[in-house]
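Readers outside the structure-tokenisation community will struggle with the description of the input data as it stands. What matters is that the chain and its backbone geometry are given together, residue for residue. For illustration, here is how one protein appears when written out as sequence plus structure tokens:

…
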Amino acid sequence: MDNTNISWTSKSDADIVAALGNFIRHHRLTQNITQQQLAKAAGLNRYTISQIEKGESVNLVSLIQLLRALDQLHVFAGFEVKEEISPLEYFKLKKNSQLRERAHNKNNLSQKEDLGW
């Protein structure tokens, strides 16, 4: 079922919802469980499972419950945001750090030069 060549941007919303339904159906059948069993495990009713598998719209919380019941929450890994600093921000921080270091070194030198006479 893994097809990395799918162009999701060219798909309509209805096609994406249908793909979600197919994903749910595929993993339900792979695990050899009925719609009723999945509904019970997910805390939903069987009619909801049926509608989703037919490509009907799905509530986000229901989708999460289904994926959790099917042990497929890993699909959300692509949504994880990793905080990264932009190259420009890194440069600014580095420059400020160097300026502070120079000022600190300058203060230390002037203190060493002052012999207290």
Q: What stands out?
A: The chain has five helices and no strands. The chain has a mean pLDDT of 85. The longest helix spans residues 87-113. Residues 83-117 form one domain.
